[in-house]
Amino acid sequence: PAWFLKMNPKGLVPVLKHNERVVVESDDILKYVDEAVGTPGGLSQGQGASVETWFEILARLRASGKERVLGYGSASSLKAALLEVEGAIQGPYLKGEHFSLADIAAAPFFQRMMTEQDKLGLRKDLHPKIFAWWALVRERPSFARTVVEPWWWWW
Fold it and tell me: For 6-21, how does the pLDDT look when each residue is reduced to its tens digit (9 = 90+)?
């Protein structure tokens, strides 16, 4: 619709309109909400890798995973991206001891990946930190309430 294109000329979702500010792109929306609501920066602070570093790691993983599922990506590219995630995990959560924006950004993608873990080469013996992290995240009430079964779409 015209009203939506006026707000976001690319015509893509997601889009957040808060007061008069329009924010597009998932990662930018997460960062905006973290700064604008509650304790400013509360979910982006903490030990371990920065949220920006995690957003970059996750972007590489999303790209290689999408390519693999759609049939034109290489297994080796996805394997390398998964090993990068595995090696970067700092604690029970991605950035360390506390749930952060990195976990929020990663959770929906891993929900998709876990439905196709055999096809994608995601294995508990190769990726124990990912599986331990996933067990914590999927049990969080804030995440569990958002999952719709069956997960009928991929990308």
Answer: 888 888 888 999 988 9
Task: State the Cα–Cα distance between residues 41 and 31, nearest whole angstrom.
Answer: 8
Tokens representing residue 117 in the block: 């873990």
Distance CA 21, CA 49 (A): 29
Contacts (Cβ under 8 Å, ≥6 apart) of 146: none
Q: Are 34 and 43 in contact (CB under 8 A)?
A: yes
Q: Are 30 and 107 in contact (CB under 8 A)?
A: no
- Whole-model pTM: value is 0.83
Segment holding 104, helix H or strand E: helix 101-115
Each as own residue / partner, the long-range contacts of residues 60-67 (CB below 8 Å, 24 or more positions apart, any chain) are 60/84, 61/85, 61/109, 62/109, 65/109, 65/112, 65/113, 65/120, 66/155
pLDDT in tens, 19-66: 889 998 888 898 888 888 867 667 776 655 688 899 999 999 988 888
CA gap 4, 47 in Å, rounded: 39
- Residues 6 or more apart from 149 whose CB is under 8 A from it? none
